[in-house]
Structure formats: structure tokens, C-alpha cells
């Protein structure tokens, strides 16, 4: 009997020395790419864009091209939710959230059907996507729906080069020089113009050491007598 009591006491003392680890936190899923379908407003025409889904703002597609303009959007891949913004900083929400079953409308002027007009399309400054399970804790915390920071937005630029080669990309209109990246960089430019902007802007093409090459604005291109290598572009709200 004494042995049994001693054994029981020893067992209790040993058990009290063990601690139980808390369940490990569920790791975030790795960044992945998803497809978004956008109605351009040109009749019922639609395009697909590939976007990184990682709970962070994206201002370009995975190929480096800007997000462009649309009248509405839908996620092609199930299990993901997205929110578009009219600015590059994710301050002003553009429409509601959208997923594979719910379309977000960006304007009341067009429904994206056959009688729609492309002039109704709205510029998309950025988009944030995540798995539906994580969306509320990441992208869902962005944006107020009102204008703080809405004065910063992307301007779609087109560079026309030799052999009638035209390349488009986005530059943020914040008054700062932005070095060109793919697909705009490395082009032998004969002219540079604005394809789309949320507001009126004045832009300047810059060469080495930010030397001014030519100013341009909506409807007024900068043209060059011989090909030039544009290193950066700066755009400021007019």
C-alpha cells in the first residue's frame, strides 16, 4: 500500500512538470496569382488580368502593365476576394468587394452590356486580393471610401518607337521622377503621350540625370526628331 501511494505521488509530481504547447498558428498561404475579368465598357468586351493575391496592394499586373480602366470586375478563380481602389495607395475604395460569384460595379454609367460605352470606364489605381478566409484581416482593412490620398493615381503612358512599336505602362502622378521599368524601359522613343488619366496632369519625359526631354499632357504629345532614351517620367496634377 505504501508503495502504491509513493508511486501515485511520484506520478503526480512528474506530471506537474510538463507544460502543454499552445496550438501553432496557421501559416499564411504563399502568394499566388489569380485572374480577374474586367468589362472595359466597350460594348460587352472583357479582358483578363493576372494579379498577385497576397493581401497587399497591387498597382500593376504580374507583367508590369498597369491595371487600366473598367466598368466592373469579377474574380475568375474561386476562393479569393478582391477590392479595387481609385488610387495607388488604397485609400479610396472603387466599388464593392468582388469574387467569383459577385461582380463589383465601378460606375453607374455602364453595366458592361452590349450597349455600353468605353468612355464610362473608370481608372483602377490599385487592387488588393486575398483568400476569402483571410480577406477581412488584410485587404478588408484598407480604404475609407472617401478621399484621403485620392490625389495620387496612376497615369497610363504610351511610348511610340521605331517600326511603329507602341508600349504602354503606368506612372504615378505624384510630382516625382519615376524611373522607367518594364515594359516602358529601354525603348527608342519617337513620341510619348498620355493614354488615360483620372484627372488632368502635366508630365515630363526625362533623360540622363533627369535632363528634360519634352513636356506632354492630355491631347498634347511630346515628339522627338530622332529616337531618345527616356530614363524617367514625372507627372503632376494640373
TrEMBL record:
Residues 1-21 form the signal peptide. It comes from the Eukaryota. Keywords: Signal. This is Uncharacterized protein. It comes from Rhizodiscina lignyota.
